[in-house]
Amino acid sequence: MESLKDNMMTISSDEFENNIMADAEEFSPAIKQQDSGTHMVPEDDFKAVAYKQEWNEVSKLPAHYIRREDMKIKDVAMKHVLPFLPGKSLMKFRAVSNEWNHWIVCPLLAYQQSTSFQKLSGYFYQVVDVDFQSDPNFLSLDHSANGIPNPSLGFLPERIKVLSSSSGLLLCQGLESYYVCNPLTLDWERIPPHQYYHGSDPAVILAFDPQGNIESYFHLVAAVPLLDQPVVFFEIYSSQSNSWSRSSSECLELEDTTLVGGGLYMKGMAYWSTTSNGVLAFDVKNEVGAVLRVPIPPGRYGALTQVKDELSYVTVYNDCGDVFMLDIYGGMDMSLNHSVCINLGHKKSRQTLEEDPFIDNGTVLCSVLPCINSGDDIVVICTTERIYLYYLSGQKVETFMTPGQLNPKRRFIPYTNSLAAIHELKN
User: Fold this and answer.
1) For residue 15, how many other CB atoms are within 10 A of its CB?
2) How far apart, in whole angstroms, are the C-alpha atoms of residue 257 and residue 278?
3) Alpha helices, DSSP H only, in 5-106?
4) Which residues, in sequence order, are CB contacts of 264 under 8 Å at separation 6+?
5) Where are the domains of the chain?
6) If one looks up domain 115-347+361-416 in CATH, what number appears?
7) pTM: predicted TM-score of the whole model, two decimal places
8) C-alpha distances in angstroms, 257 versus 42, 290, 336?
9) What is the distance between the alpha carbons of residues 172 and 191, in angstroms, rounded to a whole number?
10) Residue-level pLDDT, tens digit, the chain, 427 residues
11) Is 275 helix (H, G, I), strand (E, B) or coil?
């Protein structure tokens, strides 16, 4: 991710929409002048296609194989750099040459990129409602590299709300069906009906591990509370069998609490926040559930975040003026690991502080957004005007605009710009 200017001025909603339109325009066919003429990227969807194996009759080796002594810088870039780039950047590079175009649409590169590029690219955000009146939208952290062609996910057959994200794939809920899609390649699959009622705002997580998963199998894990009982059971969907099944595991430790949608999946575990500041954890492979208690002060809420490659629960509050306090909880007992005092430079005039309904006695309303990011330890803070990325190791702050006022009903789902394929489901 390219570094952006700190303390960027907040832009208007019109400018925000223009950025989205610019993203969409960049997905139109690209044309590039070359020595041999003009090369045009096909207008079809950006999907991986079967790679035709060709042979060099002289060396009796595959045509795409290049000996080390014959390798040029463009060959090194194509084989060893492209897998570490976000998907939108790869789409642009299809216009470099026919050779690059054929390699970028090859399923092998899609697999390599989905396992190599695991950085936070942006957020899908949407007001959560029961009648699907609000379309999703996408906030890119780098418009030039991490955009998607259809931020509202209009390529799906019905209006949806986004429930979960995992390694570049999204889980969406329609009126009667779940859908798993890749918003970059526009591939999607409809999930068969589940057996149990999951509710109007279901606590369902997409579990997808691209590493070593050539077939692109995935799971859906639904945490289903029993009516009027402090018991949660789990219904699991497997794309390999294309069927749902009820796990024998049940959780009996969630009395007087409800699950918060938009959980996270990482390292084989599904996690949900709860209204009582606990974390419901479920081992997808071994089908074992447990509740982790987070000892945070009453009335304070946070979000699940990946810190140092482990699950953490992070809270934030505005101490005074421009000073914000981060409390990071983690470990097996979810104890307080450390607190960080940061200055975000959230400058406001006295008149603004008095007139803003989201500010009480000069205190800025703020929250932590869920985040999974490989390589950099990032905490994402959302205020009434801006979104801040705070890098814990380098103590650096990057500033972005906020898509409208901070709305407690708006849900943010972290997303990675990936070429990950979706397993084709059996009929």
Assistant:
1) 10
2) 9
3) 13-25, 73-80, 87-93, 98-104
4) 205, 270, 271, 304, 306, 311, 370, 372, 414
5) 73-105, 115-347+361-416
6) 2.120.10.30
7) 0.80
8) 52, 15, 22
9) 10
10) 333 333 333 344 444 445 544 554 455 444 333 343 334 444 444 555 544 555 445 445 555 556 666 667 877 888 889 999 999 899 888 888 898 898 998 999 999 999 999 889 999 999 887 677 788 999 998 877 788 899 999 999 999 999 999 999 999 999 889 999 999 999 999 999 999 999 888 999 999 999 999 999 999 999 998 877 778 999 999 999 999 999 999 988 776 678 887 789 999 999 998 888 889 999 999 999 998 989 988 778 889 998 888 899 999 988 777 888 999 999 888 999 989 998 887 544 434 434 444 444 456 788 899 998 776 788 999 887 788 999 988 888 888 877 766 666 788 999 999 999 999 987 6
11) coil
Q: Alpha carbon 249 to chain centroid distance? A: 28
Task: Locate 283 and state its tokens.
Answer: 């081992």
Considering just the CA atoms, what is the radius of gyration of the chain in Å? Answer: 23
d(Cα 400, Cα 123) in Å, to the nearest integer? 12
Amino acid at site 67: R
